[in-house]
């Protein structure tokens, strides 16, 4: 194992001092090279420091298939079968004051690249509020505990090593602890006062010590204020030309309260011209192009403190079928340790003759559903952790047509 100690801090700007090795290649968890697959690994900007303007990077003694882009620091190339094995070479940085070089070691293997498994956004959204597809906002000075599933990486069996780094492959901030056994990130965010600060974290899985086979990333945004859309995803189901979303403006929360206009410095959406955004609600504006079946709209909001939050609206056009649900079922709140009761309105359905079934998932041990009164009831066990439980409502009409709607119960 190579030393993870960073010997010098990176100094920005032009310098007259000689470049030195600052952050060794093999401390950066470089990607494993794979036969017949293009290799692409960007060397950390802090690998050498100080470096002056116009610094150029080069390799010596590297396998012929591998080259480095002298300005972007990307190591690239495609190895062939007879390149399998270990390569030792040197990487150098040269600026007007001189040159520094470091040792590098790289593995080339036959195995195809591993795939990814369970989606990062949906994993995070199960327990956290999101301010972007993979961004978790956490208040300044707050404790946090973020866990990933072993299914984050497909075919996990062969990859028993997990690492985590910051963006640019540098070590994690000191306030963040990674536990490889649980794929958990815990800690307490710094006490920031100014504008939001974002920390990207890369979670790496590998079959080879100190290297990357696959990685995913997410971002922790630390700010004294929390701006989120809750829920983070919305549906616009268009049957024929009709359909609308819930009021998206009412799903934007600043510090836990629905954001008022004076909190928001910007709300931007880009919609195709056949969708209208009207005071928080998306709806079809007629003339849906026949080629369109699905599309996605991103909504971006910024508050007066500089926090940003985004949400997506997934548009599904269903031209033939008349759906059975008139609108989305939003998340339903339940309190841990308390009685819970919720009745679906008959007006949720587009027809009077529907019969309804429910798939309660992990809530089935404590929650019951009465299909006659369309009521959910039960006592939320005290031992449960705050989370979002996915539930599915299935409606069928007497003409044998079935439709379903997914939602969450938020604890
Ligand atoms: C972070 O993840 C996204 C989505 O998978 C990917 O496109 C991006 O390249 C990743 N960035 C880094 C620095 O790993």
UniProtKB/TrEMBL annotation:
Secretion signal, residue range per the UniProt entry: 1-17
SUPFAM superfamilies per record: Cadherin-like
Signal found in the keyword field: yes
Example GO molecular function: calcium ion binding
Domain Dystroglycan-type cadherin-like: 20-116, 135-229, 324-410
Entry's Gene Ontology cellular component terms: membrane
Keyword Signal: yes
Pfam families assigned to the protein according to its UniProt record, in alphabetical order: He_PIG (PF05345)
UniProt keywords, alphabetically: Signal
Domain of life: Eukaryota
Entry protein name: Dystroglycan-type cadherin-like domain-containing protein
Organism in which the protein naturally occurs: Eremomyces bilateralis CBS 781.70
């Amino acid at each position: 194992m190579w030393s993870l100690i960073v010997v010098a801090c990176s100094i920005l700007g032009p310098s007259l001092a000689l470049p030195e090795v600052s952050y060794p290649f093999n401390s950066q968890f470089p990607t494993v090279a794979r036969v017949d697959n293009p290799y692409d690994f960007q060397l950390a900007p802090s690998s050498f420091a100080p470096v002056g303007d116009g610094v150029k990077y080069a390799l010596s003694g590297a396998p012929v298939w591998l080259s480095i882009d002298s300005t972007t620091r990307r190591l690239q190339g495609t190895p062939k079968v007879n390149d399998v094995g270990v390569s030792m070479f040197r990487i150098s940085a040269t600026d007007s004051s001189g040159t520094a070089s470091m040792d590098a070691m790289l593995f080339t293997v036959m195995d195809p690249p591993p795939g990814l498994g369970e989606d990062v956004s949906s994993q995070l959204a199960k327990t956290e509020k999101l301010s972007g597809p993979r961004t978790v906002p956490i208040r300044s000075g707050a404790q946090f505990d973020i866990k990933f599933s072993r299914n984050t990486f497909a075919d996990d069996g062969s990859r028993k090593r997990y690492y985590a780094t910051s963006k640019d492959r540098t070590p994690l901030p000191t306030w963040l602890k990674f536990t490889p056994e649980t794929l958990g990130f815990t800690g307490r965010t710094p006490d920031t006062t100014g504008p939001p600060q974002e920390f990207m974290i890369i979670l790496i899985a590998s079959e080879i010590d100190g290297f990357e086979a696959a990685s995913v990333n997410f971002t922790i945004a630390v700010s004294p204020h929390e701006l989120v859309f809750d829920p983070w995803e919305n549906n616009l189901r268009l049957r024929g030309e009709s359909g609308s979303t819930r009021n998206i403006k009412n799903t934007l929360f600043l510090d836990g309260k629905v954001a008022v206009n004076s909190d928001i410095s910007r709300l931007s959406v880009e919609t195709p011209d056949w969708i209208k955004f009207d005071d928080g609600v998306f709806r079809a504006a007629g003339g849906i192009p026949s080629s369109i079946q699905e599309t996605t709209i991103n909504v971006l909001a910024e508050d007066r403190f500089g926090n940003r939050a985004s949400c997506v609206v997934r548009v599904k056009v269903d031209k033939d079928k008349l759906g059975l649900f008139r609108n989305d079922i939003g998340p339903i709140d339940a309190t841990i340790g308390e009685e819970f009761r919720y009745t679906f309105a008959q007006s949720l359905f587009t027809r009077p003759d529907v019969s309804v079934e429910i798939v309660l998932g992990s809530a089935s041990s404590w929650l019951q559903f009465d299909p006659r009164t369309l009521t959910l009831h039960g006592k939320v066990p005290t031992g449960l952790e705050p989370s979002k439980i996915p539930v599915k409502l299935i409606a069928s009409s007497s003409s044998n047509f079935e439709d379903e709607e997914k939602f969450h119960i938020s604890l």
